[in-house]
Amino acid sequence: MTGMLTRWRPLAGFGLAALVLFGLAPAVLSDFRLNLLGKFLCFAIVAVGIGLAWGRGGMLTLGQGVFFGLGAYMMAMHLKIADAELKGNDVPDFMQIAGIGELPGYWTPFTSPFVTILAILVVPALVAFVLGLGVFKRRVKGAYFAILSQALAAAFAILLVGQQSIGGSNGLNRFRTFFGFNLNDPANKRMLFFIAAGVLLLVVALTRQLMYSRYGELLVAVRDQEERVRFLGYDPANIKVVAYVVAAFFAGIAGALFVPIVGIISPADVGIVPSIAFLIGVAIGGRATLLGPVLGAIGVAWAQSTLSENFPSGWIYAQGLLFIVVVGFFPAGVAGLIELIRRRKPRADAPRDETPDALPELEVAR
């Protein structure tokens, strides 16, 4: 009976999440709040990948904004081309203002919806694969890897600012259609929310399979005892690269969904600050758990949106304080704190004078 409950518990959890996202949220939230929640779901997709790479693999990824930005800008380029074609123009509107009369060569592939989707799925993962091999094969880890990934995010944002052919510091905005659907139609905006919700559930399901597979065990082993894993005949670099690529793959998809939902992408959305914001949500939710990064990312983003409406200048300080408190006193995050309380609670069928010899340690990334 216990085994059956254990087997069906994940399916029940996914069913409950689907009911909340596809039934309850559209019923109780206004169109504006539902669209805002769709934006937060994009952040949650990024957070799931960070939870896998950082929480399970011990890789402090401070540069996820790069992969998020790659997916976002590729989607934005296609949407701007599609809008220009509807008006009968050769180039998007911002290029006309800037005096660019011909579509740049690197924009041309994104005239095709198929090529755009394929690039969104492949390019961020391919970039992460190349970077991961170069970094992990040289045994770069810890603070050095974190600094390197953060520098990469800063360089990417600076590069975008200097490129007027992709909007410069203003970025790309004012999208009117999404693969032929009018973005001003509330029904289509709801469709985007449902797409984001479905992608999030798929991402969580895939990550769960990875976590509880043989590979997931190896990833945790590399995090805790990398030299022992190498002694057993495995290459820790290859194991790390897979997690890094999966996290980049998720971030690229999230960026592509972010663009039509929010309606803008700029260098400010892909630099150091957004990359750290992704990390804060994961840390607060619980980086070593499956659902902790999701709930943390949504909760922090929702709090930022709500509190910044009333305290515009105070939220950033509250966010920093919350991050310090969690990292300093609750390293397992909110999910780890809940698990600790649950394990401390005595079982109803246990004798009153029975006390456990030792409390099982929470699985926390070191």
Automatic annotation (TrEMBL):
Q: Which domain of life is it from?
A: Bacteria
> Is Cytoplasm tagged as a keyword?
no
- What residue ranges are annotated as transmembrane? 37-55, 114-136, 191-211, 241-265, 277-303, 315-338
UniProt xrefs under CDD domains: TM_PBP1_LivM_like
Q: Which UniProt keywords apply?
A: Cell membrane, Membrane, Transmembrane, Transmembrane helix
How does the protein associate with the membrane? Multi-pass membrane protein
Q: Where in the cell is it found?
A: Cell membrane
The cross-references to InterPro entries, in alphabetical order and at most eight, read: ABC_transp_permease, ABC_transptr_urea_perm_UrtC, LivM-like
- Name recorded for this polypeptide: Urea ABC transporter permease subunit UrtC
Gene that encodes it: urtC
